[in-house]
Amino acid sequence: MPLRDPLAAVIRLVRSARGLAREDFLGLVDARHVYNVENGKISITLDTLETLASGLSIDPIALLVIAASYEKQLSPEDFLKQLGKEAKTLRELGVVDGLPSQFNKGALVPGIAGRRTSEEQIQAVLRCKANGMTQKQAADTLSISTSTVGRIWKRES
Fold first, then answer.
1. CATH number for region 4-89
2. Residue range 116-140, pLDDT digits in tens
3. How sure is the predictor about 32, in pLDDT bands with cuts at 50, 70 and 90?
4. Inter-residue contact 152 to 125 (CB < 8 Å)
5. CA torsion 35→39→71→87, rounded to 10°?
6. Which pLDDT does position 113 carry in this prediction?
């Protein structure tokens, strides 16, 4: 089952438990949109999730935790333990420490478009070219796509 469905149910249950009608979100989210979200007819955006969660006076992550734990058939506590392990993995990968470098004065720094070819691959392609190989032979030898070889080949001409 897609996470969209249990999240829809969680949002509907919280709204109902808080005694709120869909129309109570007017000015924040259209009532018809709330209906579609709560019935799993559409996927929710992060912006809409944050807006609904604010209107429900609950953290959006809490809504996601309850929905995901149901979807995985785990208790919320067991799911949070699993998330703790995944957070540790992200820390070990350097994601946590690297996160501040992705922002400048609170704004996300845009990434560079397209794929990046390592310097080692570029040099390997150029060596193949210098040794008289064809682009196809270089691609086969280096196990990289012929389009990547061709791009490097032409760029370095």
1. 1.10.260.40
2. 788 888 999 999 999 999 999 999 9
3. very high
4. yes
5. -30
6. 74
pLDDT for 112 beyond 80:
no
- Residue 57 CB-density burial (10 A; 0-12 exposed, 13-18 middle, 19+ buried): exposed
pTM above 0.90, yes or no: no
Structure tokens at 25: 């979100």
Tokens, residue 39: 């019935």
The DSSP output letter for 25 is G
Domain boundary assignment for the chain = 4-89, 119-155
DSSP 67-131: HHHHHTT--HHHHHHHHHHHHHHHHHTTHHHHGGGGEETTEEPPPPSS----HHHHHHHHHHHHT
Structure tokens at 125: 């392609």
